[in-house]
Design brief:
The complex is a heterodimer of chains A (304) and B (254).
Chain A (H helix, E strand, L loop, with lengths): L3 H5 L14 H10 L11 H6 L5 H11 L6 E5 L3 H7 L4 H22 L3 E8 L7 H20 L2 H5 L1 E6 L7 H14 L5 E9 L1 H17 L11 H6 L9 E4 L18 E4 L9 H14 L12
Helix pairs in contact in A: 4-12, 5-6, 6-7, 7-9
Chain B lengths: L1 H31 L8 H8 L8 E6 L7 H13 L4 E6 L3 H4 L1 H10 L15 E5 L13 E6 L5 H14 L5 H7 L10 E5 L17 E5 L2 H18 L1 H9 L7
Parallel strand pairs in B: 1-2, 1-5, 2-4, 3-4, 5-6
Helix pairs in contact in B: 3-5, 3-8
Classes of the chains: A alpha/beta (304), B alpha/beta (254).
Chain lengths: 304, 254
């Protein structure tokens, strides 16, 4: 299996050019990202092995942590293909960069004290795309899940991975990897990473109702007096309500994602493409969250 | 301790930046805003002539405080009727508008919008329907159907449908669920405008906002009339909206 080197056409620590549709983000990153001993931009080395924050990032993290930190953040990771197009690379290259952004986002969230990170990785609607686009993407999913486990990232950060969705529709090798990674990380209690694969919110609600119907057939619940909203919530793939739901790439719709769970979530539609999502975007989101939840005006937070 | 002080300072700076930004936006909006006396039916038609298409189901999700501003809401409804948008959902979480529907109707009449009285041979009219958990009989109308809804009509409607489907038995599918909801036959919301400083959908119908474009405006005051035009402009630029509208076949108000 070819590694990311071949996909991106780079070797060693050669810099990977970044797409900056938003020049303000580029300038801000260049001025503020004073990473000691590290080159600017996401080098191939830093994609996978970056462990240090710059002094400014560390200071900012500590400042943010002095305020209220959201318990659960959900991300719709949109913009990978557009990023690849801008960079004149194959679409899968955009997804590779997107994975790097995910890993970095995860590290930042852990450092800030966010306990649950939920991401929308693959929709049921994506199966309608051409197979030459879907197959490499699912193969990349498998590789990256395995890499998360084998690189020690999950163990070092005690991240429990949960894969949510109609996973029976996924290729067998991916299902095996999912089983392996989820069982490996099931005992970790540092943080939770929910990855939605082969998922749509409507399918999730219907799936919950099917489970409910089975419980009714077995006589555990009375159909009229016994069914409440909580009974449906308990049967969703995940009942955690995100404090913040973020969508990148400038689109302003939920695209059948967490429709039930995000009814009271703070929504953030950002123009940045997902591979360009950085520490400063997260800082902005946390600041907005702290501003919205100042004093007694608290938005209902997610429950474990 | 140092970080706590720094956090408080950062919050102050952040609020200052927000204040300056919103004040600048408000000033610029005021400078370029349309004189409301000039806004009439011809004005709306002229402003929207260049748009490839308007949403056929528009929703306005307002905060509890703004739900008391009947005049501003009536102004939005009048614009929606003039633009002949077939479906308009007016939503406030607590259901205040449901309680004050009669007052709202009176205010709409003052805007010279014809309320449907069942008389035949009328031109475009608007019909107000208050959504109720127990009553799913949404009327047909040849004009604009204004549905007044609250949070009881969203998740609770799905719970009600679950009770019916579980008692009937059989395999539950998306189609069966959709046909059991009170909004059966009504096309999904295409554009939802949310007012207020908090960017949240406030428990709006979860099943119906799958592909809804969401626009945020600071207040109802900002919405009329230029904010509404901006929302339609942004909506018309979304290419996905057009391909979705072309494939959607469900609309009781054709």
């Amino acid at each position: 299996m070819r590694g990311p080197n071949a996909l991106l056409g780079t070797q060693g620590s050669q810099q990977i050019p970044r797409a900056y549709p938003d020049p303000r983000a580029r300038i801000l990153n260049m001025i503020l990202a004073l990473r000691l001993g590290q080159k600017r931009g996401r080098t191939e080395q830093s994609l996978y092995n970056r462990t240090m924050f710059s002094w400014l990032e560390s200071f900012s993290i500590n400042v943010l942590k002095a305020g209220r930190i959201p318990h659960h953040i959900a991300f719709i990771m949109d913009g990978n293909r557009r990023f690849a197009k801008l960079q004149k690379m194959p679409p899968i290259g955009g997804h590779v960069q997107g994975f790097g952004a995910l890993k970095e986002t995860l590290r930042i969230c852990l450092e800030l004290g966010v306990k649950i990170v939920t991401v929308y990785a693959f929709s049921l609607e994506n199966f309608k795309r051409p197979s030459d686009e879907v197959d490499p993407l699912l193969s990349l999913c498998k590789d990256k899940l395995f890499e998360l486990e084998s690189s020690g990232f999950l163990f070092e950060n005690l991240i429990s991975v949960r894969i949510l969705g109609e996973t029976s529709l996924l290729p067998k090798d991916l299902q095996d990897t999912i089983r392996e990674v989820t069982s490996y990380s099931s005992s970790f209690q540092g943080a939770i990473l929910n990855v939605h694969l082969a998922y749509t919110s409507r399918e999730e609600i219907v799936h919950a109702l099917q489970n409910l119907s089975s419980s009714v057939s077995e006589g555990k619940i009375s159909p009229h007096s016994g069914i409440r909203g909580e009974d449906i919530e308990r049967r969703l793939y995940s009942s955690n309500e995100p404090d913040i739901l973020v969508r990148t790439s400038g689109e302003t719709r939920l695209s059948d994602y967490l429709l039930w769970q995000s009814s009271e979530s703070q929504l953030a539609f950002l123009r940045v493409l997902w591979p360009d999502f950085s520490f400063w975007h997260i800082s902005w989101l946390i600041l907005m969250y702290q501003y919205q939840n100042r004093g007694g005006h608290r938005i209902k937070s997610g429950t474990a | 301790m140092i970080f706590l002080i720094a956090n408080q300072l950062l919050q102050i700076v952040f609020r200052l930046i927000l204040f300056v930004w919103t004040s600048w936006n408000d000033f610029w909006t005021w400078m370029s805003s349309t004189n409301r006396c000039d806004v009439d039916e011809e004005w709306w038609k002229r402003k929207t002539r260049g748009f490839p298409g308007l949403p056929t189901h528009l929703a306005l999700n307002i905060s509890g405080r703004e739900a008391r501003d009947m005049e501003a809401i009536a102004e939005v409804i009048a614009a929606v009727c003039v633009l002949r948008i077939p479906l308009f959902t007016l939503y406030d979480r607590r259901g205040y508008l449901k309680d004050e529907a009669i007052a709202l109707e009176e205010m709409i009449k003052k805007k010279r919008v014809h309320i449907s009285d069942g008389m035949p041979n009328r031109t475009w009219r608007c019909h107000i329907h208050i959504m109720n958990r127990g009553d799913c009989d949404i009327p047909h109308t040849t004009g604009t159907l204004i549905m007044i809804a609250s949070q009881d009509d969203g998740k609770q409607d799905i719970v009600r449908a679950a009770q019916i489907l579980c008692s009937e038995g059989g395999t539950i599918t998306a189609e069966r669920l959709e046909s059991t909801l009170c909004t059966r036959g009504i096309r999904d919301v295409e554009l939802m405008i949310v007012t207020g400083t908090r960017k949240t959908v406030r428990s709006f119908f979860p099943w119906q906002i799958r592909l809804t474009e969401i626009e945020f405006v600071t207040s109802l005051e900002d919405l009329m009339p230029d904010g509404l035009i901006r929302a339609f402009d942004n909506y018309s630029k979304k290419e996905q909206a057009f391909s979705w509208r072309q494939t959607s076949k469900r609309d009781r108000n054709e």
